Amino acid sequence: MELLQRLLVMLTVLSLLIAILIPLWSLLSKAFLDNKGSYIGFANFLTYFGTPALTRSISHTLFISIVSTLIAVTLAFGYAYGVNRSQIRGKAFFNAIAMLPLFAPTMMHGISLTYLFGNQGLITTGFFGHLPFSVDIHLYGPVGIIISEIIYIFPQAYLIFITALTVTDFRLYEASESLGAGKIRRFLTITLPSIKYGLISAIFVCFTASFTDFGAPQAVGGQYNVLATDIYKQVIGQQNMSMGAVVGIILTIPAFIAFAADRFVERKQRSILSAKSTPYRIGQGKWRDRSFTVFCWVIALAILTPLVTTLYASLIQVWPYKLNFTLAHFDFSHVAAGGLSPFWNSLEVSVLTSVIGTLAAFIFAYFIEKTRYLKGLRQFGYFLSILPLALPGMVVGLAFIFFFNNPNNPLNGIYGTLWIIVLANIVHFYSVPFITATTSLKKLDREFELVSESMRVPFYKTFFRVTVPMSLPAIIEIAVYLFVNSMVTVSAIVFLRPADFNLASVSIVNMDDAGDTAAAAAMASLIVVTNVAVRGIYQWFVRKVRRRTEAWQTHQ
Amino acid sequence: MTIGLYTEFINTIHEPREAIMSQAYLSIKGINKTFGRFQALRNIDLDIDKNEFVCLLGPSGCGKTTLLRIIAGLETPTSGSITVGGRDITLLPPAKRNFGMVFQSYALFPNLTAYQNVAYGLHGRKLSRKEVDKKVCEVLELVDLLHLRNQYPAQLSGGQQQRIALARAIVLSPDFLLLDEPLSALDAKVRVKLRQDIRELQERIGITTIMVTHDQEEALTMADRIVVMQDAKVMQIGSPQEVYEQPKSPFVADFIGAINFIPGENSAPEQAECSQLALRPEHIRIAPQGEGIRSIVRSIEFRGPFYRLSLLLQDEWGRHTEQRITVDVSAHISSHLNLDKDSVVWLELPPEKLISFREPEVVKV
């Protein structure tokens, strides 16, 4: 048994090495080679920094990320505060709306903005001339990218704030009120400090996400280049792999800083709550509730409008001239998608990613968390498992090209098949499921494994009979997370898909590039509808599991 | 009457007890354990008889849990050996040691019923379904929980959960039983009841048992023998009466029960070594006025059946000394004394109850 466990731990770490660290290494080393493969030191970096057209992208990207992060974090905090700390009506609705953007590819935010603020946009033309005035925000460029990024990163900041606001101790509020502190003072001395780490974490997450995003700049960036689109142009347009690697490394730097900071914050955050903490009780506040109702509705509409517009645009004949209903755009046979097959391919990839990824994340988390041999190796495995948090999708994709496209690699066979896409997706999204699984496993009594061992029951029996059933909610959550993200992602797989194997999210890029915006909108709508449906099934399933297992649920 | 006079007398009755066992069932020899630079266990020797109930008692961090984990096979000792019934098990994995274990957290599988929890280890042992059923029901009957066999752990009280955990540990007829602070998560009342239950069960099925606890009362009431540990070492091994009445060190005296430390004075100058004397609060008697040692009451604590007085000793001329003394007085006697703060009380320290320590050790009372 002990030997088997040691072997499986080694296997776990080996898989992580092959899937994450070694590809990353090939990317790093590629940056120091010329296109013929000879070592040239920092020459690529010198070329890069000597080309103003390229370096300008750095300041562009920084500008975009800082502005979108500031706006999104502020809005998300207000929204989360309203949902968590006021008595507005329809909290479940507001909560659901805030998550919606997660189900859409970031391309879609760009496309929907085109419909609203583009040259033929609803607002730009003043409701197609029905209004006496019109507003042109000059969408294509930084403005469009920033708005798209805000929509894209808003849910992530919102989720962090909701969690941070929930984790509080009401006794502190009672104590300060009894000491005569006013509302503003309480907010400044209790609320803000208690969400401090959430705030830092939200800023880093949002910054990294907008810094590395590819979809939005691709859709509405116009001539405004950012790092992610640069990689795409270098690799796909100019076949300049080394320069692609250089940009990839630059793209990863802030992500790594954010990663390190987030780890640091995580460690500090632990001991805020004690078992005696009491949950927050919302007091009366008429004006507070009224203002938050208005604020939350404005945000909710701002999220809903683009989505609904895109859906609408995909269902009418020609925007903005023939507004009659049609399903013609969902027949993709005459556009870049070439029929519905990209959608089916995406479904296939997402289901495979979800199933294999869930198995990998949960089983690897189990070996790293619940076995007691090879401590050092397991810690290394843990590090490897959270490393992908710092890897932008484009970097994963690029690293996979370098590693798997090498004819000397015994795994070369999966290059150019659907499997490399599945593997890239799993690696790209691996960390969050891994952390979810680890958290869930940590909640289980440490002694389960020891008890079983003392009863001479093999660990795998306890794994199947106790660990898996106890962790079922986490497992389903992981599966849904992987599915939804594989459906919407573009960045990692845009480099990896075989020529004859298109994917829904990538086909949106192609169709949008080719000017078939309505078809792109239709494909995006399909993805959102699928994701929302999967999420709905998940909710239903979780409720059912809860009810069936009520008898053995302890109050955790 | 000075205390120093009794030193010699006490020393004579204080013979170190050498535990000479002819045939120990579970024998621990020279166990050392280091974690990096930290020494968790230092040269531990312990012999346990068959069917004996032994408590490992000590403050947190003294190494008692590490010792239990080494016996269970969850840690490997740095040196030393463990034999059970003549078989060396030092290097065997837990699965091959044939013990039952009960944890502080119970570690019952929440998604399995009480019955399924107990039956968990019986499957895959070439037993027929009927045999499994018979064994499980027998053991559940033994812990008096057969009627709750279809309940999930979350539906049982803490005490019931602990009894199921016990049933699960003994159903495999292990050679010995390890209990890791099994009662510390329970309410005071349930704890007292479960002490008796566990002890009764242990005697009935006759199983060698080692229990780790930091609760001296638990150790005193349950154990055949107590192993007092401190700082990775065994300080004393003995029956509850022995460790209570004849503690070998100030630490043991202080850790188990309440105690007064009194500096010993050697009247004979040739005895240069300084010794320390100790006396339990309940052994000190209130003397008639003018007899014994004069003291003044600093505080009175009502403890239900008795009062605990905190006193300050005075010298012959009625001046305060630094020496504080704690005395327990039964409620019955106390009612005759009219005790109040600052009232004067005369104490009698019965010589036969005095405990002396030869090695001078600085212990704060």
Offer a quick outline of the entry:
The complex is a heterodimer of chains A (556) and B (365). With 556 residues, chain A is mainly alpha-helical.
In N-to-C order, the SSE pattern of chain B is: HEEEHEEEHHHEHEHEEHHEEEEEEHEE
Q: How confident overall, as mean pLDDT of chain B?
A: 85
Strand content of chain B: 25-35%
Helix proportion of residues of chain A, in percent?
A: over 70%
Order of helices and strands of chain A: HHHHHHHHHHHHHHEEHHHHHHHHHH
Distance between the termini of chain A: 31 Å
Fraction of residues in β-strands of chain A: under 5%
Please give the count of helices of chain B.
10
Tags for this model:
heterodimer; A: 556 residues; mainly alpha; MetI-like fold; two-stranded antiparallel sheet; 24 helices; 2 strands; 71% helix; 1% strand; B: 365 residues; alpha+beta; Elongation Factor Tu (Ef-tu), domain 3; Rossmann fold; 2 domains; 25% helix; 30% strand; disordered N terminus; disordered C terminus; transmembrane (chain A)
Q: How is the topology of this model organized?
A:
The complex is a heterodimer of chains A (556) and B (365).
Chain A: H1 2-30, H2 43-49, H3 52-85, H4 91-99, H5 106-117, H6 126-129, H7 142-166, H8 170-178, H9 183-194, H10 196-212, H11 215-220, H12 227-237, H13 241-269, H14 286-315, E1 316-318, E2 322-325, H15 341-370, H16 375-386, H17 393-404, H18 418-429, H19 431-443, H20 447-454, H21 459-470, H22 472-488, H23 504-513, H24 517-548
Antiparallel strand pairs in A: 1-2
Helix pairs in contact in A: 1-16, 1-17, 3-7, 3-10, 3-14, 5-7, 5-14, 5-24, 7-10, 10-13, 12-13, 13-17, 14-24, 15-16, 15-18, 15-19, 15-22, 15-23, 17-18, 19-22, 22-24, 23-24
Chain B: H1 7-13, E1 26-35, E2 38-48, E3 53-57, H2 64-72, E4 79-84, E5 87-88, E6 99-102, H3 114-119, H4 129-142, H5 158-170, E7 176-180, H6 188-205, E8 208-213, H7 216-222, E9 225-230, E10 233-238, H8 240-245, H9 250-255, E11 260-263, E12 276-279, E13 285-286, E14 293-302, E15 306-314, E16 320-330, H10 331-337, E17 344-348, E18 355-357
Parallel strand pairs in B: 3-8, 3-9, 6-7, 7-8
Antiparallel strand pairs in B: 1-2, 1-4, 4-5, 9-10, 11-12, 12-18, 13-17, 14-15, 14-17, 15-16
Helix pairs in contact in B: 4-5, 5-6
